[in-house]
Amino acid sequence: MNRGVCTGPWGVWKQPQRARVRLQRAVMAKLKGAQPAAAGAGGKLMGPQRCCVDARGRLAPRTPLPSDPPPAGPGWLRDLAGAWIFYSVLPAWPRVTPRFARIARFAPLVGVVIGALQALLWGITAGWLPAGARVALVLASALVLSGGLHHDGALDTADGLAAGPARRLEAMGDSRVGAAAVQAALLLVLLRGAGLLALAAQAPWSGGCALVWAAFWGRLAPLLAMQAYPYLRADGTAAFHRQHWRGLRRELRPSLLLAAGLALWTGSRAWSWLLLGVVGLLPALVVPRWLGWRLGGHSGDSYGACVEWVECLSLLLSGLLLAALPRLAAS
């Protein structure tokens, strides 16, 4: 995407009123990947109603004033608040100053919250809405709750893969949607819908469990990509992930604790729910490596593609697994 003005490093997907970050101010960005104009050197402050839905966020630091209060909260909590803002459209936290440094480590936690909200919608619509309507509502809620952040990256990545090595980054940065992006969008919807329709034939909360696990594995996959492959754009909008990277072992700690809690909770209710958590591990390992091999590295767009494809394939595998379990048990 090439056009628009920024609202913050979470950019693109936030409303103007969400752009108020202490000690920082939004500036206009000329192009995706370009350095924003500095304040006082041609940069224009963003007006309250001038947020574009496909902007990429950039922040210009403001000189702290003596009257400014110190940042509120410990570093890890500020990163968690930043991840909450970056990866979702959920209301920002009060009394905590968000920091956009090591936020990727908390992406799975935000994903679990989004997955839980989808699971709640899936559960409360069971029994009185047709399966097709439930699937459509859950698909729409996934886009709404994440602001379409990862879906946009999946489409840009598809265009980049189709353009060939010489024009790959140029195609991924183009605001126009190509034929490959349209095909990728259709595939994502169809495969995710197929998985949800298979889950609709099972117990209502089995589908909800699958949604939570899929959201977790989808947000974990970019961490593996960040560790294993170089970042393709030195000045890209997701370069700060690599700049603040502390190694996979440290970045995975919150995710491992979260996975252990999910495994204990799901395993105590039904062993099949625990299986739903295991099947998502396969696409979480394969998709980042395949994309990294094809692209020669990763970018912010391909991180989003990892989320979308891992989540989609996890739901599909979960639906196929639950549908096959009765036949396997009978045989």
Short description:
This protein is mainly α and about 325 residues long.
Descriptive account of the structure:
The protein has 13 helices and two strands; from the N terminus they run E-E-H-H-H-H-H-H-H-H-H-H-H-H-H. The chain is mainly α and 331 residues long. It has two domains: 1-70, no CATH class; 104-330, no CATH class. A two-stranded antiparallel sheet has the order 1-2. Helix 7 (204-228) packs antiparallel against helix 10 (253-267) and helix 7 (204-228) runs parallel beside helix 11. The longest helix has 31 residues, at 300-330. The radius of gyration is 20 Å and the shape is globular. The N and C termini lie far apart (52 Å).
Question: Can you tag this structure with a few keywords?
Answer:
331 residues; two-stranded antiparallel ribbon; 13 helices; 58% helix; globular
Describe the SSE topology.
Elements: E1 24-26, E2 59-61, H1 75-87, H2 107-124, H3 131-146, H4 149-163, H5 168-172, H6 179-200, H7 204-228, H8 239-243, H9 248-251, H10 253-267, H11 271-279, H12 281-295, H13 300-330
Antiparallel strand pairs: 1-2
Number of domains: 2
Into which percentage range does the β-strand content fall?
under 5%
Strand order of the largest sheet: 1-2
Order of helices and strands: EEHHHHHHHHHHHHH
Number of strands: 2
General shape: globular
Q: How many alpha or pi helices? A: 13
> Mind describing the biggest β-sheet?
2 strands, antiparallel
Arithmetic mean of pLDDT: 79
Give me the secondary-structure category. mainly alpha
Q: Could you tell me how far the N terminus lies from the C terminus, measured between alpha carbons in angstroms?
A: 52 Å
| Stretches with pLDDT under 50, minimum 5 residues | 1-61
Helix percentage: 55-70%
Radius of gyration: 20 Å
